[in-house]
């Protein structure tokens, strides 16, 4: 029987090891890679960027000729009568008439006040705007993945802290039961130990819930099944070498929101060029080859046909349009002025965001050091308190206080690391400098 029990235990142990090894260990690099491939918003932004790229063509700018093929077939049945100049007349009921025309026409605008060139440049700027929007979306989503990942690391660390306190509380309960059994402790001490253990188990269950929900959220950001199980790394590494001046300089060059405002100004300037082009004449070349045929049951000509080439040009110039040209140019100039104001506003907002985020970052770095020291002190205090509790020189309340102080210190240290990491991520996002 004893051998069977040992065998069952060994099989169960090996099963647990196999299950643990099968669980994916997700690194932050792997999470970012998955997000770049799968995240829905990033995929939509990529397609939107491709649309802007596809729109940059000579034809879309109006530089290429257009060719059109057409066919027109008209038929009629009518009661007709005709009176000629010599006074004779003729009539026919249910007279059939039909005409058929088909051919190819060609049109090409060869001059429109340089509007087509401004339009092409504007399409190129819209392509850049699409790329900038894609960059903004990627930065935002990668920042989101980073935050969710390190939140999961924090939840995992807190789970480990609560596992530790369960072990300690169980030891305390066992010790209280032993002391009660030999008459060195009252039943009250056993009950207090049991209540505290139950409280720790409740806290552990709540933490497991938060940990599971954090996993589901990260899976959502990675656009994969919420049931995919995985573990994350246990360490939060904070970049402690960020410099405010460098971040501000990078933000001026790389922040996608600011880049978009600058591109919008260039687009507005090119729009003004297109509006001004309406002051100049428009010249178009036209050409075509057509065939026509008609038949009539009544009249001098019962059948006629023609085919051949036609060509020519047309030119038009806006002389007066009720001052709409002047109005349109004034509006376009105001649009340019608004985009310049938007750039200045975004610069101001960006500098404020970077400066305040950097101050939070410095504070969180200091808190890491303080909370690390607090955790070490609380750990030493718990070790001493546990030894004293075992020999019965301190009360259960003092022991519980030391135990909770240690758990809280570990949680605060973990949270300090997490908050510092969030500050780092926020700064790098503003600077457009998150590595992906």
Automatic annotation (TrEMBL):
Keywords tagged on the record: Cell outer membrane, Membrane, Signal, Transmembrane, Transmembrane beta strand, Transport
* Key word Membrane present: yes
List the record's Gene Ontology CC terms alphabetically.
Answer: cell outer membrane; efflux pump complex
Gene3D superfamilies membership:
Outer membrane efflux proteins (OEP)
Spell out the subcellular localization from the entry: Cell outer membrane
Alphabetical list of SUPFAM superfamilies matching this protein: Outer membrane efflux proteins (OEP)
Single GO MF annotation: efflux transmembrane transporter activity
> What span is annotated as the signal peptide, if there is one?
1-22
Q: Does the keyword Kinase apply?
A: no
Family statement drawn from the similarity comment of this UniProt entry: Belongs to the outer membrane factor (OMF) (TC 1.B.17) family.
Q: What is this protein called?
A: TolC family protein
